[in-house]
Specification:
123 residues; mainly beta; 28% strand; transferase; Serine O-acetyltransferase; EC 2.3.1.30; repeat; serine O-acetyltransferase activity
């Protein structure tokens, strides 16, 4: 039903935390069945969280992370707490907590202080 109505691939086996937001009802989003997504994560439209050839594991997205529109999170990577992934970035390596990663392949360009983290989830 989700795939037909919203064009989102969200298998029932996917572990998703509380307060996760899929922008535009998940339009164009693809999430691997083995992905783990923590609480209060914001996922933009057109995001892919999937596997990578030769790697049996997939991503773990920790609490409060923000994944920008069109980003690709591929393979056994960990996106740290309150990390931000830029739009259309391709993440192939771990991103530490509070970091901002952009580009293809994504590189960390800044690590925020905990008190400077923006709130992406509407309260």
């Amino acid at each position: 039903m989700n795939r037909i109505v919203f064009s989102v691939v969200l298998p029932p086996a996917t572990r998703i935390g509380k307060g996760v937001t899929l922008a535009y009802e998940g339009l164009g989003t693809v999430i691997h069945r083995a992905a783990v997504i923590g609480d209060n994560v914001y996922i933009g439209s057109g995001v892919t969280i999937g596997g990578r050839s030769g790697h049996p594991d997939v991503a773990v997205i920790e609490e409060g992370a923000m994944i920008g529109t069109g980003a690709k999170i591929l393979g056994p990577v960990r996106i740290g707490r309150y990390a931000s992934i830029g739009a259309n970035s391709v993440v192939l390596a771990d991103v530490p907590a509070f970091a901002v990663a952009v580009g293809a392949p994504a590189k960390v360009v800044r690590i925020n202080r905990e008190e400077d983290i923006p709130t992406y989830i509407k309260q």
